Amino acid sequence: MRKLGAAAGMVAPILAFACILLAIASYPQFSWTNNALSDLGVVKGSTGPLFNFGLYASGFLGLIFAAFGLFSYIGKSVVGKVGSLFFCAASLMLVAIGVFNESFSGTHYVVSASFFVLTPISLFLLAFALVQVHHVKLALFSVSVGVVAAVPWILEFIIHYVPEVAIPETISGLAVSAWIIVIGYSIFRQTKN
């Protein structure tokens, strides 16, 4: 089951960004500075369904990663369990972003904000749990990714450096994607040995 969780983690970000990039390619009007990525979720034709599928499918894979990979890898301590649960919650919010697209404006805002808040918090908690199990390099990597995932949002709220949020969403998403792939690979490699 741990291998399944690790594999789900490595596949999730690849699937998410493949669908996002295909959705962007199918909608030439998309602007990195004047759109949110979620704007793609309500575009008619193939764009909206493709974008939304990428979110809820990768969120579901993230949930499998958290429940079967992370939880068994570093969930022995209380902080590891809490960090894994926060990552599960973030994954559920990613599913919800795809299900409750911008047509559900209030709900969409809540689940989107929750995803981008819960994810860095989970990484900081998991970093502490990784230190407890003597994976110091992975802990430092987790803290770094948590910072990179949070800073674009903090800057956006402080100095509003872009009119819309596609850029902070992408920076944050790519950082977390790198983290999932690295941790998923580490779990897979440890399970293999």
Description of the molecule:
With 193 residues, the chain is mainly alpha-helical. The protein has one domain. It is 79% helix and 0% strand. Helix 4 packs antiparallel against helix 5 and helix 5 runs antiparallel to helix 6.
Quick structural summary:
With 193 residues, the chain is an all-alpha fold. Helix content is 79%, strand content 0%. Helix 2 runs antiparallel to helix 3 and helix 3 runs antiparallel to helix 4.
Please supply descriptive tags for the structure shown above:
193 residues; mainly alpha; 79% helix; globular
List the topology elements:
Elements: H1 2-25, H2 47-74, H3 78-99, H4 105-132, H5 136-159, H6 166-192
Helix pairs in contact: 1-2, 1-6, 2-3, 3-4, 4-5, 5-6
pLDDT < 50 runs, ≥5 residues: none
**Amount of helix:** over 70%
Extended strand count: 0
Question: What overall form do the CA principal axes indicate?
Answer: globular
Question: Could you tell me the radius of gyration in angstroms?
Answer: 16 Å
In percent, how much strand structure appears in the residues? under 5%
Integer tally of domains: 1
